[in-house]
UniProtKB/TrEMBL annotation:
Any matching Pfam family: TctB
InterPro entries xref list: DUF1468
DUF1468 domain ranges (all copies): 14-149
Protein name (database record): Tripartite tricarboxylate transporter TctB family protein
Zinc recorded as keyword: no
Keywords assigned by UniProt, alphabetized: Membrane, Transmembrane, Transmembrane helix
Statement: the UniProt record of this protein carries the keyword Transmembrane: yes
Transmembrane segments: 12-29, 41-64, 84-117, 124-146
Signal peptide interval: none
Native organism: Futiania mangrovi
């Protein structure tokens, strides 16, 4: 049976976690100082809370190890899909910059990402990106009141 045991932490990891937590706190306080309205903090406050919770979890994990666990093996080779996905993300940002529209760019990015990650069913490659695109465009425009440039959904 494996048990948890205390160990010496990696101070570099702890410093990085501390820097991330400090950034999260600074960003929240800066946003709160700019405007304490719900619309401004609706996404920032929960993201900050989740981020700080993860920082606490990771910091605590630095001090314990599992006794009897298998030793760490070498890192696997880079998955060839990772560079493809990075290129897709760059193309998505470029499409947004060059006015393809948030809706069309999001649909194409989601469909291509699903394909790169192994999805081959045509129905899913069309339906999921279409539904998700409509939801995020409506969410950005109606719930957050953020005007996003769209190509197909100008009347939404």
């Amino acid at each position: 049976m494996s048990r948890l045991r205390l160990r010496a932490p990696s101070w570099g990891h702890l410093a990085f976690i501390g820097a991330a937590a400090a950034f999260l706190i600074w960003y929240f306080l800066d946003a709160y100082g700019a405007s304490s309205r719900l619309e401004n903090l609706m996404l920032i406050a929960p993201a900050t809370a989740i981020g700080l919770g993860l920082c606490l979890f990771l910091a605590a994990a630095e001090f314990v190890t599992v006794e009897g666990a298998a030793p760490r093996t070498a890192l696997p080779a880079v998955d060839p899909r990772v560079p493809l996905f990075m290129a897709l993300l760059a193309a998505y940002v470029a499409a947004l910059v060059y006015d393809l529209g948030f809706d069309v760019a999001s649909f194409l990015f989601l469909a291509a990402s699903l394909w790169v990650l192994g999805e081959r069913r045509p129905t899913l490659l069309v339906v999921f990106p279409a539904v998700f695109t409509v939801l995020i465009v409506l969410g950005m425009q109606e719930l957050l009141s953020i005007p996003v440039p769209t190509l197909l959904f100008d009347d939404m």
